[in-house]
Amino acid sequence: MDRLKLDWTHLTADAVGPDHGITEAELEALREPSAAALRAVRARAEQDLRFQTLPYDLETHGRIAEYAEAQRGRFENIVVLGIGGSALGNRALHTAMHSPFHELFPGEGLPRLFVLDNVDPDLIGEFLDRVDPSTCLFNVISKSGSTAETMSQFLVFRRALIERLGEEAHVEHVVVTTDARTGVLRPIVEEAGYASFEVPDGVGGRFSVLSPVGLVSSALIGIDTLGLLKGAAHMDERCRTEDLLENPALLYAAAQTLMQREKGKPIAVTFAYGHRLRHLADWYAQLVAESIGKRLDRAGREVFTGPTPVRAVGVTDQHSQVQLYVEGPHDKWFTLLAIDQPDHQVAIPTDFTDRDALAYLGGRGMGELFHAEREGTRIALTEAGRPNLTLSFPRVTEHTLGQYLYLMELAVAVMGEHYGIDAFDQPGVEAGKVAAYALMGREGYEARRAEIEAARSQRTPRVCG
Ligand code: PA5
């Protein structure tokens, strides 16, 4: 079976020196806290950290599979209306499992997938102009059922559907994923008779990719969702041990913690060597940023903590970011995502053999070049004292993707323990949401609006242009 491999050789003091790399003593000191953190996270698996139970929820999976099967061949386009944890995983799975040209050439009768995680009128307006809503199934995803971005999209596309198809027929073009009880969406589902799935209690938005949040759209576009869950369950089993060196989630959480706390590296770069993996880096960026980026610790003290996640794509960003990474400030550590076995082999023709600059390429595989470039970057980073870890996918399959998603979720939950913060709330996001409600004139937010306007009127505008 394909197992994800975590190679941390070049994260150590041996590889990059004691100023930048982890020493035996530092790791040793985190052994018992790691085991304790794992116990704390595991103890909440049936309460508010139920993301740990998702790989085993085969009953829900069965209902999703049945629904997806019934929709087969009915829609040209699946459109996800959601944002943050209600969108990033959906896109990451699609990018990893389908051709980068899928939306142009959706093969094998599969629908296209569009994840419209913005309210930019140039995005939504363009979609309305170009795509006939009657060819679409809209998967409205919002755990809270109150997110302004998703709700406004729902209103826009619901109206477009009704205008095109009529009140009755439009219902077949909507499937909602939301909380079982709370929020405005659930009663709307009941009234309209939309198909729907639940975001289980105790599963936070950014930890929900393996729930109906990520699985419904995946099943609709032909991804083997059972494979995802099996991969996640496999990783869950691997991460049962309390031995720091045997448990990939504990190891990754320790790496992040030590890099920031002991080595002064606030920036965590995920360098995806694989076009297919690039949106996993986006998904992880949100997971870690919203979970660990916090003003207060659990005792209510101001700590202003958290890593700054940065995403890069190999080899593209070698010609954009790597100069900075190798020679810039020593404020970063790197996770290289690698694929051992790509699905395609592309041979480089043996032409222009009399030109040195081209001759060495002839007869080699593009995969060989890709691998050499990744290794080249790793070597350059290491020699420049930049700690890096490689997370390898033997192949990109549903099973290995499930392993990765679960690994990172558990690692971030453990990080929350090391950082001493609540990894499962997002007060900073709420603050922005409340301000937006106030500015949009939502009832109940008048006082906040008055505060914002008062602050504005006291500030001298300084504008150039
Ligand atoms: O992780 C989170 O909780 C957030 O990123 C949410 O997923 C995001 O804000 C969307 O929320 P909702 O699903 O309630 O619309």
Features:
Rossmann fold; 12 strands; five-stranded mixed sheet; five-stranded parallel sheet; 465 residues; globular; single chain; binds 5-phosphoarabinonic acid; 2 domains; 14% strand; alpha/beta
Write the topology of this structure.
Blueprint: E1 5-7, H1 13-16, H2 24-29, H3 31-43, H4 58-71, E2 77-81, H5 88-97, E3 112-115, H6 121-130, E4 136-142, H7 148-165, H8 167-170, E5 174-179, H9 185-192, E6 195-199, H10 212-220, H11 225-238, H12 248-261, E7 267-273, H13 278-292, E8 294-296, E9 302-305, E10 308-314, H14 322-327, E11 332-339, H15 356-359, H16 366-383, E12 388-393, H17 398-419, H18 427-439, H19 446-458
Parallel strand pairs: 2-3, 2-4, 4-5, 5-6, 7-10, 7-11, 11-12
Antiparallel strand pairs: 1-12, 8-9
Helix pairs in contact: 3-17, 4-10, 5-10, 5-13, 11-17, 12-17, 13-17, 18-19
This protein binds 5-phosphoarabinonic acid (PA5).
